[in-house]
Amino acid sequence: VGARLKAVGEVGACNADAADSRILVFVRLRPMSKKEREAGSRSCVKIVSKKDVYLTEFASESDYLRLKRVRGRHFWFDASFPDSTTQAEVYGATTSDLVEGVLQGRNGTVFCYGATGAGKTYTMLGTMESPGVMVLAIKDLFSKVRQRSHDGNHSIQLSSLEVYNDTVRDLLSPGRPLLLREDKQVMKLLQQGNQNRTTEPTRVNETSSRSHATLQVIVEYRSMEGGSIVTRVGKLSLIDLAGSERALATDQRTQRSIEGANINRSLLALSSCINSLVEGKKHIPFRNSKLTQLLKDSLGGSCNTIMIANISPSNLSFGETQTILHWADRAKKIKTKALTTANEEVLKVPDSETDQTKLVLELQKE
Ligand code: ADP
Ligand code: MG
């Protein structure tokens, strides 16, 4: 499928009727945690309306009274999700359209960005009781494929990669994508993959992940349409980035600070790519880190791209939240060339070939 995808991708890219579009940016506010409440924190984020997020800084009631006004800033996004938003609502608003596109041979990417503990993994993977975008996307794919099974043959493959210390590691099935036959076991599979992620205790959250994790779902579809064999390949990439916070100032020789430097380096590389893309520069420094190499297709290429910025409501995270909203605001300005046509290949069956069904079966065996 890899080679096929490449070949078909090239066909698609040549014929692409590429329309200029931009990255869609969403913000998800998580509920205040018990720990934050116990630390006496206040909410510094207000979802004013569907698109309007208001961030305000006041350390204490007395500060607020002394300043006599709230120093704050409004940010506008494609949508902002208050802490009451369900997983299904987030999926529906951000990813379900991309899943439909993938079935038609278009690529799509969703990535979560935010500080450790802000809700990235909850949004992407979720829990057994409240599965997240990755699980809901695969379930949705399967139910859509089942509805369409009469018009062709679909195959769904998964691969899950981790970028840690600027090296790439396979979390599911080293060396090859996993052919998924049904969606029942997918949560278990993804949770196992997530457990394989490199984790280290940090200041904010004991089990926070120090790595970037990506799940790629490749859907290949084949059918006979008016004497031709049509092949479409769509790729959905779902990305759970490492925490965006600054590395702890620790001894330069410790493992933690090396990791911190690497996480910072890849997120720094990401921000310089975002800057270059926003400024319309010819050269975008994707090669500066593994993470940006991985995101190259999504940020600069022909892809429908969604960014979800995860934030905590607590004023204890004010600085991080401000940074995240700043980058999310900038990401809105990134133009991508969204494919309006699919990665599609049409093979004309020769007239002499009478038994077309036989040929399709042959191809399916490949
Ligand atoms: P991150 O991956 O960004 O470090 P997590 O997704 O692990 O953060 O979230 C930290 C904690 O907050 C987890 O215990 C998670 O279950 C909880 N959490 C995050 N977002 C939500 C939400 N929208 N609703 C309920 N709990 C949430
Ligand atoms: Mg996480």
TrEMBL record:
Span of the entire protein shown here: 39 to 404 of 615
Taxonomy of the source species: Eukaryota, Viridiplantae, Streptophyta, Embryophyta, Tracheophyta
Domain (Kinesin motor): residue spans on this chain: 22-334
Protein name: Kinesin-like protein
Family of the protein in this entry: Belongs to the TRAFAC class myosin-kinesin ATPase superfamily. Kinesin family. KIN-8 subfamily.
One term under GO cellular component: microtubule
Keywords: ATP-binding, Coiled coil, Microtubule, Motor protein, Nucleotide-binding
Superkingdom classification of source: Eukaryota
Binding residue positions for ATP: 114-121
Organism, scientific name: Zizania palustris (Northern wild rice)
A molecular function (GO) term: microtubule binding
Entry annotated with the keyword Coiled coil: yes
GO biological process, one term: microtubule-based movement
